[in-house]
Write a structure and sequence with these properties.
By secondary structure, the chain is of the alpha+beta class. The protein has helices at about 15-40, 50-60, 75-95, 210, 215-225, 230-265, 275-280, 285-295, 295-310, 355-365; strands at about 1-10, 115-120, 125-130, 130-135, 140-145, 155-160, 165-175, 185-190, 195-200, 205, 270-275, 310-315, 340-345, 350-355, 400-405. The protein has a seven-stranded antiparallel sheet. Strands 10-9-8-11-12 form a five-stranded mixed sheet, with helices on both faces. Helix 1 (about 15-40) crosses helix 3 (about 75-95).
């Protein structure tokens, strides 16, 4: 399997100018080729392909006066930029034809100078050294090797984020390294107030970096909007805002990486609910809080690490009634309001914490049941199983025993 290893680099002022020129050249080649392809496709012509694009916008463009400066940078990143454009077009067409999994992709877009800049070098265009990495026509870049590379990389991408930081991202081909077997399994219920509730009763709170930085974020955004466009002060305000966004992203990513690694290390099997995150983000009251949590990134990390370290990850159907069913007897008590955090089963009398009960049901649906009847997978209650005097539609509030956050019985009649 292929993995990415990212390291921080510290270029000199001269190297920063060389990298800026490289980023500009790759961006111009991409935009020129994309404009040509869009014009050709709108005119009903055939897609030119990578070979034609490379010949026209690199080889022939270097011979013109308007693009003669393309010869001053390395050839490999320019070629890789067109390869990425070709792959982007093919992924777009495959997605709208149904040949590619997931939602339909948007067509390739033009690159901007203010967004993240990148350029990729192939194996013959860079060399690894003890404390530096050599890039063709850039020089030896100082690098911080935070961890060793497991194998020789096939390519490296130099990246400059909007906050002005530089990174090198290596692509390495490595074999999965299974961890020692364990008999532990866990179900995870994701939430907003509590990021994750485990089936063993543990609750993990999220750092919520965006929520904690909202006041400072608003102040920096106001300062940026008041600066004159094109001025030096506007660029300084933009840089301050970008640094805050980078800090928020780093805090969230660090939390998710450490939590996913810990769960993979401690458990052989992990069950997780398949949440419709894109649909939930359409709720304007919860979209910011959900985005601040990073549910989808957490799932992607668990999927990648489970393959890498030989663990079993089970994704449970989103329609599984994990919050309605009793994790002890398996009977369904009906839909609960979000304000109800504690409830008592009408069939077996067990009192449940809403999130812990859901996590146990997720674990059981993944094939690791701890319930009395040893249930697992999909479970549905037959109508003739409920005694009429004990159904959830009974009008006497004393027998319902539903509790809110304060522990006071809440009548449903």
């Amino acid at each position: 399997m292929k993995r990415r290893y990212r390291y921080r680099i510290y270029p000199t002022k001269t190297q920063e100018k060389s990298l800026a020129q490289l980023f500009g050249c790759t961006r111009v080649v991409w935009n020129d080729a994309l404009a040509f392809c869009k014009t050709a496709l709108e005119s009903g012509l055939k897609y030119p392909g990578f070979s034609t694009l490379s010949s026209q916008f690199i080889t022939q463009a270097k011979q013109t006066e308007a693009r003669a400066w393309l010869s001053e940078v390395a050839f490999a990143p320019l070629q890789q930029s067109l390869r990425d454009l070709d792959e982007a077009f093919r992924n777009f067409w495959n997605s709208i034809k149904g040949k590619r999994k997931g939602a339909a992709m948007k067509p390739p877009r033009f690159k901007k100078r203010s967004s993240t800049q990148s350029a990729r070098f192939t194996r013959t265009a860079f060399k690894l050294r003890q404390h530096k990495v050599y890039l063709v026509k850039v020089g030896n870049l100082k690098i911080e090797w935070s961890r060793p590379l497991p194998a020789q990389p096939s390519s490296v991408t130099v990246i400059k984020d909007p906050s002005g930081r530089y990174f090198l991202s290596f692509v390495v081909e490595c074999e999965p390294t299974p961890m020692p077997q364990t008999d532990k399994a866990v179900g995870i219920d994701l939430g907003i107030k509590t990021f994750a509730t485990l089936s063993n009763g543990e609750k993990i709170d999220a750092p919520m970096p965006l929520k904690k930085s909202l006041k400072k974020l608003r102040r920096l955004q106001q300062r940026l909007s008041r600066r004159q466009k094109g001025s030096r002060r506007r660029e300084l305000a933009r840089l301050q805002l970008a640094k805050l966004y980078a800090k928020i992203t780093d805090i969230r990513s660090d939390f998710l990486q450490k939590l996913s690694t810990r769960l993979i290390r401690e458990n052989q099997a992990i069950a997780l609910e398949n949440l419709n995150v894109s649909g939930m983000l359409k709720n304007r009251k919860l979209s910011r809080a959900i985005s601040d949590l990073g549910w989808r990134s957490f799932r992607d990390m668990l999927e990648a690490k489970s393959v890498m370290y030989g663990r079993d990850l089970h994704i449970i159907d989103r329609w599984e009634p994990t919050s309605q069913a009793c994790s002890c007897c398996g009977e369904r008590g009906g839909k609960l309001d979000l304000s109800i955090r504690l409830w008592e089963c009408l069939f077996c009398g067990t009192t449940h914490d809403r999130d812990v009960n859901a996590a146990k049901n997720i674990k059981a649906a993944g094939g690791h049941s701890e319930a009395i009847n040893g249930r697992g997978g999909l479970h549905k209650t037959r109508l003739d199983r409920a005694v009429p005097s004990e159904t959830s539609t009974h009008q006497e509030p004393i027998q319902l025993s539903l509790f809110g956050e304060t522990g006071i019985p809440v009548p449903l009649g």
